Amino acid sequence: MDAGTSPRERYRAQVRAEIKQHAWEQLATTGVAALSLNAIAKQLGMSGPALYRYFASRDELITDLVRDAYRSLADTVRSAFDAGADVAGLAHAIRKWALDDPQRYLLIYGTPVPGYHAPDDTTTISDKVMVVLIDAFAAQPRNGPVSAPASRRALSFWTRVHGVLSLELAGHFAGMDVDPAQLFADEVDTLL
Amino acid sequence: MDAGTSPRERYRAQVRAEIKQHAWEQLATTGVAALSLNAIAKQLGMSGPALYRYFASRDELITDLVRDAYRSLADTVRSAFDAGADVAGLAHAIRKWALDDPQRYLLIYGTPVPGYHAPDDTTTISDKVMVVLIDAFAAQPRNGPVSAPASRRALSFWTRVHGVLSLELAGHFAGMDVDPAQLFADEVDTLL
DNA sequence: CGCTTGAGTTAGAAGCTATAACCAGACGAG
DNA sequence: CTCGTCTGGTTATAGCTTCTAACTCAAGCG
């Protein structure tokens, strides 16, 4: 196994992984806006510009993190679906994933960085999440006599989940005397 | 009128207004993350640290902008309500306000800046928006036999509006062959 | 065994927020 | 009218950021 990997390549891959590891830790605490390559380099014991051997720019590192976040979410939803969860189960799996690392959720679904434009393949990966949701709604028994197509219902599902979830993560329910978990559950129930 | 204002105070107020004017322009194009006090100072013809005579820090300027944004949104929704708009009308007024300056919407309802903590009075102002919504739902004729209180329905309204709106502003409907306006209208309709 | 490749270094440019020290002009009090 | 204070502006500077350039040194490949 790993026949074609030279020692150099393996070292490089490992350092890249360590960089991303520290990037995730820093991201979880400070958010993506304050993610500093210098700080990561210091934590790794190397100084400043050495990181540019592994990531051409700060944006490229962030792009990699975005890709991984999308993949992680898609995998989470997919495995929940494969485990037999219904649509409501998927919603709670998504919420659990988001609360597990709020900054990771905000990284992909939060305010986009104005200058930064995501590469095409990230949008391809982001579609994977929607694909699972559409599958789930196609398998879901329909309620009314005439019902919107699964893709349309999945989209509506997604906007509602994101609506309550993003407001919760942003702390907009703070002084409002409302239980976010209950509100989320209620909002999911109205979809059925 | 303006009896107690000395010439100094009037000048100071005017410069503050000019600073905020340029801040809004810069915000609309580059977003809050890239808002630069230096750049604003240059545009005003003064150099760098002079701005600190008017705003103690970058955060204080942003706080002022946040306050104004909340006020503007609350006024918009209030006047729409006073003009006789129903709940759906309020939703479209909100969407119009958001599309009019997306960065202004994201400033208050987007990803919060990790270090920055909003002062108490900004949350007080943000409540004003909810108050109008609750008023609108209290005036709305109820549909079902038993219905949730107006505050609860207003909250649900708000999460749905924000859900579809924030995804639209973030560009997450880009390659999805979906009309955001239609999706928004549909989502609002399901509330009735 | 030598040559090439690449990982790491320091130096430095350009930008940012923010503070310190200073200067000059306008304002209010006597 | 004059004097002193207060304030809006300046430049210099510290410390942070991303990122480029030039260089060194060692590891790996042929």
UniProtKB/TrEMBL annotation, chains A, B:
Pfam families: TetR_C_33, TetR_N. InterPro entries: Homeodomain-like_sf (IPR009057), HTH-type_TetR-like_transc_reg (IPR050109), HTH_TetR (IPR001647), MT1864/Rv1816-like_C (IPR025996), Tet_transcr_reg_TetR-rel_C_sf (IPR036271). Gene3D superfamilies: Tetracycline Repressor, domain 2. Residues 13-73 form the HTH tetR-type domain. It comes from the Bacteria. The keyword Transcription applies. Keywords: DNA-binding, Transcription, Transcription regulation. The keyword Nucleus does not apply. Residues 36-55 bind DNA. One of its GO terms (molecular function) is transcription cis-regulatory region binding. This is TetR family transcriptional regulator. It comes from Herbihabitans rhizosphaerae.
